[in-house]
Request: fold
Amino acid sequence: MAKSRRSTIEMDKEEFRKIGYQLIDDISNFIGSIDQKPVTPNEGPSQLQDLLGNTSLPENGRPAAELIAKTTDLLFNHSLLNGHPKFLGYITSSAAPIGALADLLASSVNPNVGAQILSPIATEIEKQTIKWLCDFIGVPSDYGGILVSGGNMANFTAFLAARTAKAPQNIKEDGIQNTSNKLTVYCSKTTHTWIEKAVVLFGLGTKSVRWIPTDASNKMDTKVLENTIKIDLENGCLPLMVVGTAGDVSTGVVDNLSDISAICKTYNLWFHIDGAYGAPAAIVPKLKHLFTGIKDADSIALDPHKWLYSPLEAGCTLVKNPQHLIDTFSSHPEYYNFSKSGQDKAQNFYEYGLQNSRGFRALKVWLALQQVGRSGYEKLISEDIEFSEMLYDLADQHPELEAVSQNLSITTFRYVPLENIDHKEYLNTLNEAILNELQTGGEVFLSNAIVNGQYSLRACIVNFRTSKKDIEEIIEIIIGTGRKVHLKISQERA
Reply:
């Protein structure tokens, strides 16, 4: 009888159990003490390279237990911790612990969720997750969709579906260079940079984008939008799609989605909503009016790894008519034997997006949706918004701070010295220097926004660990840092 193969990469169950138990203990201790750690260690690339060493690829292997222990130390003590309660920087949420367990479980089974035959239960879980996300944001469950890596990919997937649906039918064979009318895309000047990547990567070019100005409330000016479409039609262009934003990444503003929808219907344009950050707020009853029109969208991008507290990576594209995804992405080479599944028609996710081989991203989202439930998410998201409003109010009340804007869970504000300096250039320089100090100081991590030409500090709360105490302490940290940086700059200029 032949012996079983013994591979150096394999672990027997006792070794795996011992290492795994130790790792889970270490992770538990890390989560339990994360608030006591600096948000960031402020170490440069050369310091981190020294930690790793400059050795060449190892010739021989080392014990797994030793490697896991060393790597645990590296990650816990040399990372920016977006799970820290005072991380209010870019829109990366504090990750739900159940998501970490889900990723371990998913990678242990390792299904390829590109085809149903390769991932029987994983495919069904992703399908159910899509339906639940539709219900979450208030669109019909017959929308179809796919889990992707994040906001860029979610928006790219929708962009390509829009191009297939609205461009001339010969585009697949002849390409866009042979279209007689120039394809044009419409979006607010505050739209995320993904749109520039999309028009470059997918052949339309940056001149195809019409950057629509915003009104006094920072929403897309829909009157200018409609006039721009009319002018393009008169000049032989082919309007393709309008991108509305549900939660601008700088200030949290939600465009007037119902007005944009009406314009798209009038001129037969694809209506896409970039809700990567803000769409989950539609679950909050008092905010539903902001999302009127979301049900009319042809496609929606949202990121569970933003405001659903999923670990990276987890983005999602939802499309009103899923056939548009199939028309865009499906192919059937002869070496694919994925269409047979007995009496049922299989759904193969490789036909819904850019990837063929796909990891099981849906599991962590699916589990968290069940652990927290609708009411739980409504409470968590509402609390994030309340803390953002609290931060705005405290900034507004403080003589050395100027509150600038507050929408959804994003507050922008800036430090203004007591000398009442109103020189715009100096205040912009000062607040940029304050942000740089905060981002390296390890006490709190914010980002920035330019609002009406003002360089502002920006706090985005998508963090279930942040508390009222943290908000109060953050104000004091910013005041202390502001005074120190202002004094330093003043002395340097003296």
Remarks:
- The chain is about 45% helix and 15% strand.
- The two ends are 87 Å apart (CA to CA).
- Residues 99 and 132 are 17 Å apart (CA to CA).
- The mean pLDDT is 94.
